[in-house]
Each structure stands twice: as C-alpha cells, then as structure tokens.
Amino acid sequence: MGDTGNAAALARPALRPRPRERRGVRLVEVAGQLPDKVLTNEELGEQLGVDAHWIQKRTLVDERRYADGMTNAELATAAGRKVLEKAGLDPKDIDLVVVATDTPDDYLPPTAPLVARDLEATNAGAFDIHAACTGWLYGLDMGSGLIESRRADTILLIGCQVISPYLDPTDRMTVPVMADGAGAGIITAVEGDGYVQTVVRGADASYAHLVRAGKDRIFRMEGMETFKQAIDALVDTSREVVDMCGITIEDVDLFCYHQANGRILRRVVRSLDLPQEKVIEAIRLVGNTGPASIPLALERAQGEGRLEDGQRILLGTVGAGALWASTLIEWHAG
C-alpha cells in the first residue's frame, strides 16, 4: 500500500511555484468622505451643559460630523469611489477591498464585501479589519505584505467610523471628540525598492480597560490614562521607526498622526521637538474619526498643497486594545 501511494504522489504534476522576488509598494492616492451633519461646539455645549470654550480648550476640536442615518457601508463606499476616481482606476482593477472599521452596520455580513459590491469591484476579494483606530495602518501593513509577495497588485484600503449612535450623549469625555467619517487609500506594486517601509506595531492588553464598548456597544473611555498612554506610544514608535529606517526625526518631512485629540497631538509635538509646520493637524474640523483619521488627514494636507513627491512622511497611530503602529512612507502620487 505504501509503495502504491508513493508512486501516485510521484505521478502528480508539481505545483507551479509563485515568483519569489519581492517588489515594492506605493501609496498612490488618498480621499475621504465626511457626512453632511455638522455638530458645533455651541450646539454640543448646550447638550452637555458646558460652554463651547470648555470643549475647544480640552479637545482643540471646533466641530465634528455625524452620519445621521448614513450607514457605515455607504460612507465607506463613498470614500472608496472618490479615491478610485482620483487615482483614475476602474473598480475592476482592484484585487482586494479592505475595510478597517469597528462600527459595522450589522454583526454579519462584514462591511468590505458590501463596499466591493456597490463599487462593482467584481474581481476583488474583501474583508474587514477590527483593530480600533490603528486599523487603517494595520491594513497598510498587511496589504503591503500581500503586494510585496505578489499575492495582490492593487488594494483599496478604507478606514470608516460611524460611532455617533454609540455615544452616551451626556458623556463629556467622549462626545466632544468622537466623530463619523471615512478615508481611503490605494496601494499598488512598484518594481524595485518600495515607498512603504516596515511597520512598527505592538499591543498591550494591560491597557484594555481604557477604551471599551461592551455588549451595549456604547463607547466609553478613561480620559487621563488614555491621554498618557497614547502620547507615550506615539512618541516611542516614532523614534523606533526612524531608527529602523536609518534616519533621524529631523530627516522626516511631515508627520501624520492619528487625530485622536488635539492636546495629544500637541504633547507629541513637544516631546519629539517637532517644528509645527511639519505636523499635519486635521482634527479641528472633523474630530476623532478612528481608523479614517490618517487618510483624512493626508487628504487635507494634499488639498493644502503640502504633499510633494519624494517627501518622507511618518504615519503613527494608537487605539483601543491597546494597539499602536507607525511607519515611514515616501509620497509619490499618481
């Protein structure tokens, strides 16, 4: 019996190996979609029983957007459609749709296949990433690995958050800063050296109690502890990623951090002694949009004419879990 089995195995055709040569990755375009409903500090102050100045001073946020009936999948699809149009891509060119979100419309199905269907990305696989505010950067890491190993050529990566239905309207810690929004990016293959570097990432569940949403899905946060942990994680991973890339903080052209809270951003800037003109701040008019915040911030910088080919941009994020990640990209659009 054993000899017969071996003979059958030898008779089978050999598997065709995939090409092993690695290749590089480029983030070619970003775009975002914000809901129409705007909630100002004045309106929110009446709701919370505080004045608008109190909110602005503690968050550096002036207004935030609420989906107001727009679904998570609809918001993600709108951002995906925008980035495809900006990149000049047909949806059928996409090999994979990845959606980073913690606020799906339903437990099942995932959001990504709904987005792929509505965009008519008929050649694409699709899946969600559930990694809090770090989700988009974790997706960039995972997608880059798939492209480098030649398992995909072009990936649509979307971060989306519709958290407004899950906020306690009386919670002064969360409501002033949290908001809805979607941001998308296209990553593609380039031959030779790539423009997305290794991602430094980590997790420590000893901080899991700081940001939670239980069975009721209501979002809750321990403010002061979260504030300190976020600053430490962003500062430490920024230093680590530039060291891994063989450069210094001074060699980075722009810093694009998760837009968690304006005061967190300012503390990171001071801790790393960064020139303010090198830091992208987009939180003032959009709030904390979770996994959408980095592509939304990049889009704002692009609209202001601050993104130039060849620039080194450090991306850094931190989220519930606690999770964190940073990477360095070289911007080459189009």
TrEMBL record:
<dbReference type="Pfam" id="PF08545">
    <property type="entry name" value="ACP_syn_III"/>
</dbReference>
<dbReference type="InterPro" id="IPR013751">
    <property type="entry name" value="ACP_syn_III_N"/>
</dbReference>
<protein>
    <submittedName>
        <fullName>Ketoacyl-ACP synthase III</fullName>
    </submittedName>
</protein>
<dbReference type="Pfam" id="PF08541">
    <property type="entry name" value="ACP_syn_III_C"/>
</dbReference>
<dbReference type="InterPro" id="IPR013747">
    <property type="entry name" value="ACP_syn_III_C"/>
</dbReference>
<feature type="domain" description="Beta-ketoacyl-[acyl-carrier-protein] synthase III N-terminal">
    <location>
        <begin position="127"/>
        <end position="196"/>
    </location>
</feature>
<keyword id="KW-0012">Acyltransferase</keyword>
<keyword id="KW-0808">Transferase</keyword>
<dbReference type="InterPro" id="IPR016039">
    <property type="entry name" value="Thiolase-like"/>
</dbReference>
<feature type="domain" description="Beta-ketoacyl-[acyl-carrier-protein] synthase III C-terminal">
    <location>
        <begin position="245"/>
        <end position="331"/>
    </location>
</feature>
